[in-house]
Amino acid sequence: MKYLGIDLGTSSLKASISDEKGNILLSSSRSYPLLMPKENYTEQNPEDWYNALIEVLKDISSKCDLSDLKAMSFCGQMHGLVLLDKDDNVIRPAILWNDSRTTEEVDYLNNVIGKEKLIEETSNIAICGFTLPKILWVKKHEPENFKKIKKIMLPKDYLVYKITKKFVSDITDLSGTLFFDVKNRKYSKFLLDIASINEEMLPEIHDSFDVIGYISEDFAKISNLNKNVKVVVGGGDQAVGATGTNTLEDNSLFMSLGTSGTVFASSSTYKVDKEGRVHSFRHTNGKYHLMGCTLCASLSLKRWLEDILETKNYDKELGNLPEEISDIIFLPYLMGERSPINDPNAKGMFSSLNAIYNRKDLTKAVVEGISFSLFDNLRVMEDLGLKFKEARVIGGAAKSSSFLKILADITGLKLKTINTTDGGSLGAIILAMVGDGLYKTLSEASSDLVKDIKVYEPNLVNHEKYLLKFKKYKNLYESNFFHK
């Protein structure tokens, strides 16, 4: 038996095939363009996602027998706005999670409707990344497009719709829309009315592990899959990634070092930050989680190494970073910032440069700045009463031992890598397995399939030094950008 996990990311779509024991047999990926028509605008063409899906499935089927493929599921970039008309045509390019054009709409929601009311209705305040501000932006700036809207989807749900014709979504992805009542698991009529939309435009609500049907005959022919493959709805990338790192029980924690950075804490009970610094969402197991998301984790490192230093040799650049902790501070706010400061106008910067410093000192400062942005969210969760001793880490930067040593020293946590750096694909595979009945629960599957590989212990002396440097990091932002 085989299972398929589809990870729809910001830069590429990846498909991974596993056997019934969770061993990844084969993976394939395809990239697609990120459209940036104006400053702070990020968009993609949903058809590019669909074409990438077809290409990777054809590639895998040419190398691996998929006749015994039982089920497939999805891990998707969150918050993106996909709009279809009455003929199921895409109305405009999808507005993505890291698009920050909606500052006016966010200001209206937080300060006119009010943060307290938003938290009451959805458990979260408005941020530029969420879906509802994007809908309000289209309503104001593209009224002709707004009039055409028949269906409103999230990115992964567009792929599910294309291959099954089922108009569905799940509680983890919907949690990040700002029109979904996280606590009560339903749409907020109050916020739908504000956006001038109704439930008929929105997908049917499911758990992440629900089987919603089978692939269509047309898609089976196009993709070289058999038509009896079950389709499990899947979830938002971070919740699915948490499933793929076995972050399902109380006070379990994982951090993702992808394009964005994420701090994710699972909880069996409903918790909400009344200041809205971190998000309160539903988890794949139907329970809850707190999440802080920074906009530029690996993206900051990529911009520094590839665009400024003009190198793609990450191993060389990160391999021998200085032991000393310098005075240089890097703010990784290259596209504004989301959690916990919620400031689209924050800017990236270096501070405290000196002639004694060199290329490697600045590279280490970039790694420290990314780590501080994650630590900033971790401290908020601790303020809410959560306690952590360790965390699992996934994502591209998790391949770097130097990065993880610095992150361990800054957070003071024991960090663990697992048997995959791609928790999203494995999490989607686990959802497919549970949907198919191979496992009864997500916890049972994750405990069985997720294995720790390497452990990074924090240097507590360095941790104390970093606590002092973190204060300077916070002061640097507050003195340059923060306005009450």
Write a concise keyword list for the protein shown above.
single chain; 484 residues; alpha/beta; Nucleotidyltransferase, domain 5; 2 domains; 7-stranded mixed β-sheet; 16 helices; 21% strand
Poorly predicted tracts of residues: none
Counted by DSSP, the helix tally is 16
Mean pLDDT: 95
Shape: globular
Mind telling me the C-alpha Rg?
Answer: 21 Å
The structure class reads alpha/beta
How many E-type strands? 24
**Under CATH, the topology of the largest domain is which?**
Nucleotidyltransferase, domain 5
* Fraction in beta strands: 15-25%
The CATH class assignment of the largest domain is Alpha Beta
Specify the CATH architecture of the largest domain. 2-Layer Sandwich
Helix content: 25-40%
CATH homologous superfamily label of the largest domain: ATPase, nucleotide binding domain
Report on the structure:
This protein is an alpha/beta fold and 484 residues long. The chain contains 16 helices and 24 strands. The strands form seven sheets. Strands 1, 2, 3, 5, 13, 14 and 15 form a seven-stranded mixed sheet that branches. Strand 18 and strand 19 form a beta hairpin. Helix 2 packs across helix 3 and helix 10 runs antiparallel to helix 12.
How are the SSEs ordered, and which strands pair?
Blueprint: E1 2-8, E2 12-19, E3 24-31, E4 43-44, H1 46-63, E5 69-76, E6 82-84, E7 94-95, H2 103-122, H3 131-141, H4 143-148, E8 151-153, H5 155-164, E9 168-170, H6 171-174, E10 180-181, E11 186-187, H7 189-195, E12 204-206, E13 211-214, H8 217-223, E14 230-232, E15 235-236, H9 237-243, E16 253-257, E17 261-267, E18 279-282, E19 288-294, H10 298-308, H11 314-319, E20 329-331, E21 349-351, H12 359-383, E22 390-394, H13 401-411, E23 414-418, H14 423-436, H15 442-449, E24 452-456, H16 460-480
Helix pairs in contact: 1-5, 2-3, 9-14, 10-12, 12-13, 13-16, 14-15
